Structures are given as structure tokens and as C-alpha cells.
# Entry
Amino acid sequence: MAVRVQEQDFDLGAELAALTAGNHGVGGLGVFVGLVRDVAGAASVAGMTLEHYPGMTERQLETIEAEARSRWPLEATLIVHRVGRLEPGDNIVLVACASAHRQAALDATAFLIDWLKTKAPFWKLEETPDGANWVDARESDDAAAARWSR
Amino acid sequence: MKVLYFAWVRQRIGLGHEMVNPPDGVATVAALVEWLRARGPGYAEAFRDTRAIRCAVNQEYVEPDHPVAVGDEVAFFPPVTGG
# Structure
């Protein structure tokens, strides 16, 4: 029910506590956190800059979230995605889904991150020893998103 | 018409956004790309391989045959890589 795009870091514990606060119908929480790695293929990565399309990004995330809520019985959902310059180890994205039971929570979380990666307009510029490179979209991400098509 | 560019499309063109006023015959995304391509070498380089570019009109993904009109917000960008 909440979508945020922000430069600042998020506090995982505080975000999850707020997501389920006061809702004792929640029996399970699915969580995915994406982090910046220090390698890209053979190259080392000193940092990356995340660019996005303000307005369209939020609309796409809200559309994806609504799709998840139409497919699974969810009590609460949260997507937080960071933009700007990040370094290895930094948080990039948080996806969390709360439901009465674990299967819906886990499946909806996987669905949201798979769809986000192929639909939400974000782009990563990686800093490597050879210079700055725009990350290419991966066919494996398309395949991961396609498994949810119906 | 407002046109926005992101990631390497923005870098090659050298602009993040601009207002354009294409002639009446430019009625689809594909026609707009052809018209933009003629505006300079940066545009030609950005739109060299249109299979590598995605388009949104008024913040929704569209295909090249989608119409464009005065007042639309049109964005061009590479396949997305968030998450």
C-alpha cells in the first residue's frame, strides 16, 4: 500500500515494524532487500548512480503493487527504492509483503521484485576501473518476470 | 510536446528534456524518432538502434506505432535496470 522513491537509506527493522503495526491478522512477512555488489562480471565496482523517471516510476510501482494485491490476499505491501549515488554494501531496494500465510507473502514478494526489475524506470550507472558503464538489461530478468505472466 | 531522455539516451543527446514542435506529419512514436534523429549527430547516435530503446507516452509504455500529439509527454530510454 506504500511506494517510495528516495535518496536516503531505509531502516529495515523500522520499516517492517511499521508495516505490520496493529495488524494481528498478519501471520507472515515476505521480505526482499537488494544491495550494491562490489563486482560486475570481471570488473570491480566502486559505486553506482541510480537514475529514474520521476512520476512514471511511482506510477509503475503502484501498478505493480496493485497487480500483486489482485493476485494474492495481502494485508500490507511496501516498496522502497533508492536513487542517487550508492556504494557497495548499500541498500538499493526493499520489497515487503504481509499476509495471513507464508506462501502468499513469499510469492507476492518474488513477483514484485521480478516485475519491478523489468518495468520500473530505473537505470544503473556503474563505476568500474575502465570508467562508468550503464548496466545492460539482462535476459534472465525478463525470464524471471515472464514466469508470472498469465 | 515535451520529450524526456534518460540514461545513455540522455548522455548521447546531451539533454534531459526539451520542448519540441514537430510538423503535423509526425503523428506516431516511430515518426517522432525519425524526426528527432535528423536534429543532430547526438540524436542520430542515440537513436541508431531503436530496438535498444523503450518509449513511454504520458508515462505509460507504448510501441512505435502509438500516436503522439501536441501536449503529450514522450520519454525515450534504454531497457530498465533497477532493483
Summary: Chain A touches chain B at residues 34, 50-53, 55-56, 59, 81, 92-93, 113, 116-125, 134-137, 141 (CB under 8 Å). The radius of gyration of chain A is 16 Å.
